[in-house]
């Protein structure tokens, strides 16, 4: 079946602009995660959604970052007033349910470049 | 908080050489442990996992054993191939204070296998 998809695959923006990144998880997966992969920081957790529960936003680096998940499926990560340090690959992952045992399936990522 | 430390790369080996990539972790409780692989130009894929002490995960000739006494999960392969060239990430999954199951990753080890 289809895997996790993300769009766009690449995004170049100017400092101060807002960007939206989209994630389509695997159908039926209730858990969805956003991570950020950058040269300096490696792979970092950003936010977690599980079903209709309140998301765990503990990994978001600043209040310029927000995310929502509509209808328990598609998720959008929004970065407002982008800064150069936001340049990174943003990865989305989903799993059947939230659990330390469940494999997380990753999308190909969105490469964000802030000029 | 939870953390994962893995050997820094890059690692360059000749084909058919033995591979070890060291990984140690710090976590409360009993996390699940994973090795993820990122081939050039591709997304993160689960390579193997172990969910409790003394479990051995294995896949594609790679193995790793969950050692609670040494808090380690070293990746090994007896004979590497050129196609194993990739970046390898050690990771753990445990429940956070907010009740979510995000992965905590090591910084990754780039492996290059030369013919």
Write structural notes for this entry:
The complex is a heterodimer of chains A (115) and B (115). Chain A is an all-beta fold. Chain A has strands at residues 5-7, 10-13, 19-24, 31-38, 42-50, 65-69, 75-79, 88-95, 105-106, 110-114. In chain A, strands 2, 4, 5, 8, 9 and 10 form a six-stranded mixed sheet that branches. In chain A, strands 1-3-7-6 form a four-stranded antiparallel sheet, with no helix packed on it. In chain A, strand 4 (31-38) and strand 5 (42-50) form a beta hairpin. The model of chain A has no long low-confidence stretch (mean pLDDT 91). Chain B has 115 residues and is mainly β. Chain B has strands at 3-6, 11-14, 19-21, 23-26, 32-38, 44-50, 56-59, 62-65, 75-77, 86-93, 103-105, 109-114. In chain B, a hairpin with a 2-residue loop joins strand 7 and strand 8. Chain B is globular and about 45 Å long. The A-B interface holds A 31, 33, 35, 42-45, 48, 50, 56, 58-59, 91, 93, 95, 98-109 and B 31-32, 36, 42-46, 49, 51, 89, 91, 93-108.
| Biggest sheet character of chain B | 6 strands, mixed
Question: Pairing-aware structural class of the strands and helices of chain A?
Answer: mainly beta
Provide the gyration radius of chain B in Å.
Answer: 14 Å
Q: Report on the biggest sheet of chain A.
A: 6 strands, mixed
Number of strands of chain A: 10
Can you tell me the residue ranges of chain B where pLDDT is under 50 for at least 5 consecutive residues?
A: none
Which short descriptors sum up this protein?
heterodimer, A: about 120 residues, mainly beta, 6-stranded mixed β-sheet, B: about 120 residues, 4-stranded antiparallel β-sheet, 12 strands, about 50% strand, globular
Question: What is the structure about, briefly put?
Answer:
The complex is a heterodimer of chains A (115) and B (115). Chain A is mainly beta and 115 residues long.
């Amino acid at each position: 079946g289809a895997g996790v998809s993300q769009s766009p695959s690449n995004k170049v923006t100017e400092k101060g602009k807002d960007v939206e990144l989209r994630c389509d998880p695997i159908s039926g997966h209730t858990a969805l995660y956003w991570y950020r992969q950058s040269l300096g920081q490696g792979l970092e957790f950003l936010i977690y959604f599980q079903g209709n529960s309140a998301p765990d936003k503990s990994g978001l680096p600043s209040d310029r970052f927000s995310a929502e998940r509509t209808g328990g499926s598609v998720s959008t990560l929004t970065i407002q007033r982008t800064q150069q340090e936001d340049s990174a690959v943003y990865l989305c992952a989903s799993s059947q349910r939230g659990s330390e045992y469940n494999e997380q399936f990753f999308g190909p990522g969105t490469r964000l470049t802030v000029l | 908080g939870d953390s994962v430390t893995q050997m820094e790369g890059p690692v360059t080996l000749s084909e058919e050489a033995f591979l070890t990539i060291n990984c140690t972790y710090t976590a409360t409780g009993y996390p699940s442990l994973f090795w993820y692989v990122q081939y050039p130009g591709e997304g993160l894929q689960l390579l193997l996992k172990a969910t409790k002490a003394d479990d051995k995960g294995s896949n594609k000739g790679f193995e790793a054993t969950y050692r609670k006494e040494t808090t380690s999960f070293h990746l090994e392969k007896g004979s590497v191939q050129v196609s194993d060239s990739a970046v390898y990430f050690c990771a753990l999954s445990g429940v956070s204070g907010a009740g979510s199951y995000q992965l905590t990753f090591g910084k990754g080890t780039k492996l290059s296998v030369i013919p």
